[in-house]
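Same chain as my last thread, 322 residues:
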Amino acid sequence: MSWWNTANKNRNLAVGLVKHAEGWAVAKVMAQGGDRWQLSAYRWLASSGSSNEDRKSLQMLIKTMGLKGLPCHYVLADEDYQLFLLESPKLEGEELVQAMGWQIKDLLPYPVQEAVVDVFSVPQSTAKAGKTMVNVVASPQAQILEIAKEVTELGLELESVDISELAMGAVMRMSGAHPRGEALAILQPGQGELLVFSQGQLAMSRKFELAYRAEVDEPLPTDQLLLELQRTLDYYERQLGQLPPAKIRLAAKHLHESKLDDAFKQALNTPIELLHLDAQWLAYKDEAEGEFSALMAAGGALRGLLASGRLVIASDSGRGVA
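reply #2:
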């Protein structure tokens, strides 16, 4: 999915940019040929509470990181878009986008005429009883235009506007995902989201409330989390007729191995483990917001490099991280 495209196909560098309520995450990713890539730089800029001051600070950060003029892949925050999994009519291209926009018009908190709508496919195997499913994304058009203006003012070249589910999917794909498919549970203060990937594509996603503040010494609400994970997998298997993913990986701020005991890891038929990060990610664990925000920003850049052909999917036998 991309709501912008000014790609320079000759570049092997890309910037991922994510705006959170608490600040900005900025990542610089380099494609090194084939499936090899490197997270060259990452910074977190905490918000001052003033949009003008934040813009000035971010412009300075972009300059000091040597990012000016590079292609930028902007990842929307969860509250900035809506995502739906719906049955698709037998249409393609712009006709399909228009048809799906009509289907979601009563589900949006604003008029569909003021929305930018896009669709992206789900794995063929996710279809049930001959039905074809698609993911539909909508975001206010005024917001997308404001992002384009903001990125240009920062001295970056906007190449795409993306969503967090697909950005995290790129991280999974480039980190040696199991060929049978995997799920990624993202835990944030007050809520969780389970993303299920199959054949390298997002098969489904589900958000749920979670009594978790993601603080350093806070234990996981294991009973509640297991219940929500099981509910999602039940729907995936029974309603969509799919095999369960090979594993569930967890990602969150301040999430470490000591918070996961063996009973929790084996409580479901699908094993649970941390999203293990390579050394280059862990280099940023002391940066404010830590490596979790780096995942989102770098995922946006990885998506751009994959889409342009400057990066290819890692083989099943190993990772593509330098």
